[in-house]
């Protein structure tokens, strides 16, 4: 029996020729990604046990992103803890406030993370990096501590779900709509502890930013990670970051690999999708209900990239955010913020009546920069709409693509972005 991409990576990193789902392995980690929320807890565990060391300071990436710049004293202390540890241990790759942004998006653009490698982090959206043909997953602070100390983590080899997306999507339908459609079909635990491997001609023709959106939300279906096989799109992306094919290993799933589930999606049949409260699998067609919104949020590690901001600008250009709607746009990194400024996107946002914030996780997790109050209704390009996720438990969060968020911000209620397809087509 052949192996999947994920199984091949895990075998190579655990000293095995062959692994099977359910097998327990000790896996070597190529990279450990740290931020200021979960890392301090891991460091305390190590300090309390006299194990205050790092396996390799050159293989740790530190990016404060969740509550920066600090909004209160507690947040400031967590940031200080991460920063002092970075300097004490000589952590080579540190992307401080003003030089980084959201950790997952920062990492994907550095060229540090390469196909065929492994990554762990104390953050559930670490699966984002799977778009590069890697095995990347979030772990708890205890496993994070072990990875920092020894560069190894215990895994149970996961089963793999194959998601085949074929055809061409309608104008106005984005990768965010595709992944919300898949999660709607399989449920919020439909890929429980599985690898979600994306294939098909739709994926073949998808750029890297769209692929990151797909793998980013594996955890919203209960997945262990998401993954896309390396192809020419990946190779060009890596080359642009100074990485040549001889510096990484490409893996493809074998023809006789075993998949637990196969999901077939016709991209042409997918419509702009909105996940209603309070679970990402509660998907419905955008605009099927006239739901007034008080907030519109664009950002997060799912949809804060330059292509997302361009989608928003196409709709907002020459228009105004509806009266009574607070719109916040958060570019995912400093580099994206700068590029958006150079392209005139930030000016379009401001002229439309939106607020542009600094690169960070922002309001996505309800800690900073746009926390929702009682009974607020937010349409967001982020990844979770759980009760209390972005603020007050009575607030309602609707997940959607950046284009749907922009269309809804202009209308004042959840709207179908295809009403602006003439604008999208003109831009293309």
From TrEMBL:
Q: How is the cofactor bound, as the UniProt entry phrases it?
A: Binds 1 [4Fe-4S] cluster per subunit.
Domain of life where this protein originates: Bacteria
Q: Which UniProt keywords apply?
A: 4Fe-4S, Amino-acid biosynthesis, Branched-chain amino acid biosynthesis, Iron, Iron-sulfur, Leucine biosynthesis, Lyase, Metal-binding
Q: What class of enzyme is it?
A: lyase
Q: Give the reaction(s) catalysed.
A: (2R,3S)-3-isopropylmalate = (2S)-2-isopropylmalate
Q: Where are the transmembrane segments?
A: none
What's a Pfam family in this record?
Answer: Aconitase
**Which cofactors are reported in the record for this sequence?**
[4Fe-4S] cluster
InterPro entries, per database record: Acnase/IPM_dHydase_lsu_aba_1/3, Acoase/IPM_deHydtase_lsu_aba, Aconitase_4Fe-4S_BS, Aconitase_4Fe-4S_dom, HAcnase/IPMdehydase_lsu_prok, Homoacnase/IPMdehydase_lsu, IPM_dehydratase_rel_enz, IPMI_cat
Aconitase/3-isopropylmalate dehydratase large subunit alpha/beta/alpha domain residues are: 7-282, 290-412
Q: What is its EC number?
A: 4.2.1.33
Pathways per UniProt: Amino-acid biosynthesis; L-leucine biosynthesis; L-leucine from 3-methyl-2-oxobutanoate: step 2/4
- Kindly list the positions annotated as binding [4Fe-4S] cluster: 301, 361, 364
Q: Which PANTHER family match?
A: 3-ISOPROPYLMALATE DEHYDRATASE LARGE SUBUNIT 2 (PTHR43822:SF16), HOMOACONITASE, MITOCHONDRIAL-RELATED (PTHR43822)
Cite the record's note on assembly: Heterodimer of LeuC and LeuD.
Q: Which family does it belong to?
A: Belongs to the aconitase/IPM isomerase family. LeuC type 2 subfamily.
What does this protein's UniProt record list under function? Catalyzes the isomerization between 2-isopropylmalate and 3-isopropylmalate, via the formation of 2-isopropylmaleate.
UniProt-recorded name of the protein: 3-isopropylmalate dehydratase large subunit
Q: Which organism is it from?
A: Deinococcus sedimenti
